[in-house]
Amino acid sequence: MWVFIVGDLLMFALFFGAFVYYRAQDPALYIESQATLNQGFGAINTVLLLTSSWFVVGAVQDTRGQRAGQACTRIILALLCGAGFIAVKFFEYREKISAGITLTSNDFYMYYYMLTGIHLLHVVIGMGVLIFLWRLARQSALHHSTASHESVISHFESGASFWHLVDMLWIFLFALLYLMK
Amino acid sequence: MNTRIQMLCTWCGPAFVAMFTVGFWWLAHYLPPPSPNASAADIAALYQQNTGQIRFGMLLMMACSALVAPFVAVISVQMKRMEGSAGVLTYTQLSAGTVGILFLILPALLWTVAAFRPERDPNLILLLNDLGWIFFLMPFGTFVVQNLAIGIAILASSGPQVLPRWAGYFNLWVAVLFIPGGLLTFFKTGPFAWDGLFVFWVPLVVFFLWYGAMFVLLRQTIARTTPASAAA
Q1: Domain residue limits, chain A
Q2: Cβ contacts of A13 on chain B, cutoff 8 Å
Q3: How far apart, in Å, are the Cα atoms of A162 and each of A7, A166, B71?
Q4: Is A2-179 assigned to CATH 1.20.120.80?
Q5: Global ipTM
Q6: B74 in contact with A at a CB cutoff of 8 Å?
Q7: Is a pLDDT exceeding 90 seen at residue B102?
Q8: What is the pLDDT of residues A67-84, one digit of tens each?
Q9: Which residues of A touch B187 (CB under 8 A)?
Q10: Any idea which of B22-26, B81-85, B206-210 has the lowest mean pLDDT?
Q11: Closest residue, chain B, to A4 (C-alpha)
Q12: Could you tell me if B94 and B148 are in contact, meaning their C-beta atoms sit under 8 angstroms apart?
């Protein structure tokens, strides 16, 4: 999983680097366009993902402590936060698109849609990973699992790491796109 | 016997990459790609000035693309070992990988047509050039599915490890990095155009890395094959 995480970080580093590079060539345009972004939505999303990561951390601890039932609950809560993020994104995109702002409106918006879009894809994939973790925990809780405790923990930690990556990427994204002047 | 032919087939991977690079870069000078923003006159001039080299380069690219087939086949044979018998992921990889060969041959063919009568109306040459590049870089679906199949098969395999787990994550990463290619339809300049960072250069690097890694890993696992496990 670390191979994927490092690789993904590299890719996003490239994205962020490209954004910063092109921004330096026309800062006025970028700042002006940035002003149209809904920072409220961005902040809510940040809180949602941070909360979901907190739940995931708890779930990992529960798994280590063999409290699989509690792990299940925490994962569900994390999933709800993730769903909330996706919902907010839906409203945010809708707000932009109905104002006529699309992928090709200008360079800033290209990066905005591209970066948040690819991140959103990661969130969706992350939700899939969380569901997988939920099933893992559930099997453990019902004592249906034949896997060793160590392997369950290992899988759990891998999945959790991916979700934390998704969260971390959003923090950078939020700072870079929404806040950085 | 089986292992020896498999080893031979793994060589088809690097052979394809080497020949394709010679044709694409050294002969046809397609690296860096011509800008999608270039005028018809500029593009026509490219085909008129480099006609012979483009023809040679494209011929080479077209011919060596078929070498991908045995490479895909070797991967399929090893995936069969991962799945226990020829399973769904094996077939997915085989079909997606095979269809992917088309997206290597067809662009070369289209560019050949452009170079066939370079005295044509420049707008027609532009059209053929566009067709070639879009055919070459936009269809990311089959490559994504192919790499996903390999990645999932590796990560989900429960028996003896045919390919290492990190290779599973690596294939997933490769799959994700081909996706931005689809965005070239919206842009004529910038990092998402067909000569851009995320549509051309990143997939190019990833492409090389994938062939290199798979070549080494396949050879390692084939060498470890005993007659008993090969019969599975």
Answers
A1: 2-179
A2: none
A3: 12, 6, 31
A4: yes
A5: 0.79
A6: no
A7: yes
A8: 888 889 999 999 999 999
A9: 104, 110
A10: B81-85
A11: B169
A12: no
